[in-house]
Design a protein that fits this description.
By secondary structure, the protein is an alpha/beta fold. The chain has 16 helices and 25 strands. Among the domains are: 127 residues, Rossmann fold, CATH 3.40.50; 97 residues, 2-Layer Sandwich (GMP Synthetase, Chain A, domain 3), CATH 3.30.300.30. The mean pLDDT is 97. Bound molecules: methylmalonyl-coenzyme A and adenosine monophosphate (AMP).
Length: 504
């Protein structure tokens, strides 16, 4: 039986006794043991009645067991739907309902809060704790360590990753086995991963960066991974001597640079540092080189497309750019209305076509159509230009999106909540420079005439609905929002006005 993704990423390691994961407590997980556990999990998933094509939603702490759920889903053909651990039950309810997930895995501590979510969406609920225990793990004990791999081809769906939207409603990006596999193959080659590598991994595993880029590349190359439960500078510095490569968002790099223990000596043996998910400031790139002698390799991707472009491994890694289209990926900079390529050097919207590009948004055919050109190019909503040497520069975003510490926040989602609050006439949510997260969220509120909205009550209401990282770091009141002659709110003017608000 064939299962394209399982056969490429996992099956070759079924008898691999080498170390896959090095854990924070000094423990290790071999490839072989990891895959035996994943097979037991696949047995539980099918015992729960899920069949290939069903969805399994997972909101659990990062752990080897959490990663084994991904492997179990690929093997059983069940669509893996990982969720940010910061999401509130209100947010999880939407994802479970929208995806029609049949099984929800959560941390034991959130089981009470999510019991109702599962019940109202007719999903089963099981727990998987950070230490690998919980009802799901218990159910796996004694299960066979082998599993009849579900037959899947490259066009079959492997994962749903939800991305927010400019309308405020999240969309489930449907990723096929081929989307994931083609990108992993490309990246292993482009970034020269081999089984000798040791990847320092401190990213969450519920997003493309930490899961597909980092883990699929590791699995495909057969390297080992220092698998840290979360980011902290001490652990990164402590583990750096044992690593050869690292992947991170820009905040990882700025925080490392803020620590005097992070030196050229500590990193002299390292082969590669990769950055992505948010713009890496040219000054960070330069400071990193000055401190360590390494030039960070910046790449550019999206949930819907996996990785699109990368600075070269051998050639010049140009600060402030995201490099060249990856092999097999077509990238053009186009005129936003027509999709016609702009003249070299001009700014346009970045569009992408290739085997990496997703199949569409789950049950949103119109949204999907709107974001593709007739010739199959996907419109990213990022604005860019090509320089004279073919390097792509991202110069802004056509979409109203804030990227804070590598997490995306769509202002509309927060504005809809602000607008409902007592005494609020209207609102605008903007991203302004933040010393740690790159951008930070600010909520601008216009009170109803004669009313004085209560900021604490507003923040409490937001806290019940959306994850902390999406919540405004500050709320400010204005008598009115700046508008252009068409009546459109001028967020640029607000961003200028409040540019120092989170300066620290
Ligand atoms: C944490 N907080 C944040 C963020 N993270 N606020 C804004 N933006 C953030 N990113 C807030 C918390 O709510 C909390 O607030 C306080 O900061 C401390 O939280 P803590 O969990 O201790 O923070 P941390 O551990 O220091 O986390 C910062 C972090 C994390 C390590 C930078 O945000 C992170 O791991 N980011 C990576 C995201 C990522 O993997 N993105 C890839 C997306 P309070 O104290 O008020 O409660 S994939 C993607 O974008 C594409 C495909 C691509 O190209 O890769
Ligand atoms: P997401 O929807 O979480 O997958 O985020 C994708 C978005 O992150 C892209 O559309 C870009 O706006 C942004 N992004 C990813 N990598 C980079 C990068 N290296 N430089 C600038 N923006 C980036």
């Amino acid at each position: 039986m064939a299962n394209k993704l399982y056969d490429a990423l996992f099956a070759p390691h079924e008898n691999n006794t080498g170390t896959f994961l090095h854990l924070k407590d000094g423990g290790q997980v071999t490839y072989e043991a990891f895959l035996r556990l994943a097979a037991q999990f696949a047995n539980v998933i099918t015992d729960m009645g899920l069949v290939a094509g069903d969805r399994l939603a997972v909101q659990v702490a990062k752990s080897p067991e959490a990663l084994a759920v991904y492997a179990a889903c690929v093997r059983s053909g069940v669509i893996f739907l990982p969720l940010n651990t910061a999401y509130t039950p209100v947010e999880v309810d939407y994802f479970v309902g929208n995806s029609g997930a049949k099984l929800v895995l959560c941390d034991g501590a959130s089981a009470d809060a999510l019991a109702q979510v599962a019940a109202q969406n007719e999903a089963a609920l099981m727990t998987l704790d950070a230490d690998g225990s919980g009802s799901f793990a218990e159910a796996a004990q004694g299960k066979p360590t082998d599993f009849a791999t579900a037959e899947r081809d490259g066009g079959d769906l492997a994962a749903f990753l939800y991305t927010s939207g400019t309308t405020g409603r999240s969309k489930g990006a449907m990723l096929t086995q081929d989307n994931l596999l083609s990108n992993a193959r490309t990246l292993v080659g482009y970034w020269r991963f081999t089984s000798d590598d040791v990847l320092l991994h401190a990213l969450p595993i519920f997003h493309t960066h930490g899961l597909f880029v980092a883990m699929n590349v590791s699995l495909l190359s057969g390297c080992s991974v220092i698998f840290l439960p979360a980011f902290n500078v001490d652990d990164l510095i402590g583990n750096m001597p044992d690593a050869t490569t690292m992947m991170g968002v820009p905040t990882f790099y700025t925080r490392l640079l803020d620590d005097p223990r992070f030196t050229g000596e500590l990193t002299g043996h390292m082969r590669l540092f990769v950055s992505g998910s948010a713009p890496l400031l040219a000054e960070t790139h330069e400071a990193f080189e000055a401190r360590t002698g390494h030039r960070i390799l910046e790449r550019y991707g999206m949930t819907e497309t996996n990785m699109n472009t990368s600075n070269p491994y051998d050639g010049e890694r140009r600060a402030g750019t995201v490099g060249f289209p990856l092999p097999g990926v077509e990238v053009r900079v186009a005129e936003p209305d027509s999709g016609i390529e702009v003249a070299a050097g001009d700014i346009g919207v970045i569009e992408v076509r290739g085997p990496n590009v997703f199949k569409g948004y789950w049950q949103m055919p119109e949204k999907t159509r709107e974001e593709f050109r007739d010739d199959g190019f996907f419109i990213t909503g990022d604005l860019g230009r090509l320089d004279e040497d073919g390097y792509i520069h991202i110069v802004g975003r056509q979409k109203d999106l804030i990227i804070s510490g590598g997490y995306n926040i769509y202002p509309k989602e927060i504005e809809l909540i602000l607008d409902e609050q007592d005494g609020v006439l209207e609102s605008a949510v903007i991203g302004v420079p933040h010393p740690d997260f790159g951008e930070g969220v600010v909520g601008v509120i216009v009170p109803q005439p004669g009313k004085t909205p209560d900021p604490d009550a507003i923040m409490a209401a937001i806290n019940g609905e959306v994850a902390r990282f999406k919540q405004p770091k500050k709320l400010v009141m204005l008598d009115e929002l700046p508008r252009n002659t068409m009546g459109k709110v001028q967020k640029n003017a607000l961003r200028d006005q409040f540019s120092d608000l989170l300066a620290g």
